[in-house]
Design brief:
By secondary structure, this protein is an all-alpha fold. It is built from 5 helices and no strands. It is elongated and about 50 Å long. The model has no long low-confidence stretch (mean pLDDT 93).
Length: 135
């Protein structure tokens, strides 16, 4: 396991906290879909199922990343989710990289970059992964 200095460990911890927070919020806004499709929305049964599945998978991955438990595996899962989010944004909903009034899939791409960093470098010293590797 690679060792990092305290600044690098702090940066990885901050990245884990921010990444987890983003996925917690994302999952929170998917919970209303358990009651059915919110009024005024039209969504296919497959996307409804996927949204419900993601409302479970995202907080699980976020918790693993937050605590640094199986960080690389959790980051891989979250990376796959983000690639799917970018694909759906662009090709299903027709949302571009940015829009005149709101963000497009540029935000998902930025979070994807963070997940790739965690995938490549791991969680750092202040994590469950580090403590498990020492034993």
């Amino acid at each position: 396991m690679q060792t990092y200095n305290n600044y690098q460990n702090a940066a990885l911890l901050i990245l884990r906290i921010i990444t987890a927070a983003i996925f917690y919020v994302s999952a929170y806004f998917k919970f209303p879909f358990w009651e059915g499709v919110p009024g005024g929305m039209s969504i296919s049964p497959f996307l409804l199922f996927t949204t419900k599945l993601l409302s479970i998978a995202e907080p699980l991955g976020a918790t693993a990343v937050l605590f640094g438990f199986l960080t690389r595996l959790a980051s891989l899962g979250l990376t796959i989710i983000l690639i799917g989010a970018i694909f759906v944004s662009e090709f299903v909903y027709g949302i571009g990289f940015v829009t005149p009034v709101s963000a497009g899939w540029n935000i998902a791409l930025a979070v994807l970059g963070g997940c790739l960093i965690l995938l490549a470098f791991g969680a750092g010293k202040w994590s469950i992964d580090y403590n498990r590797a020492r034993k």
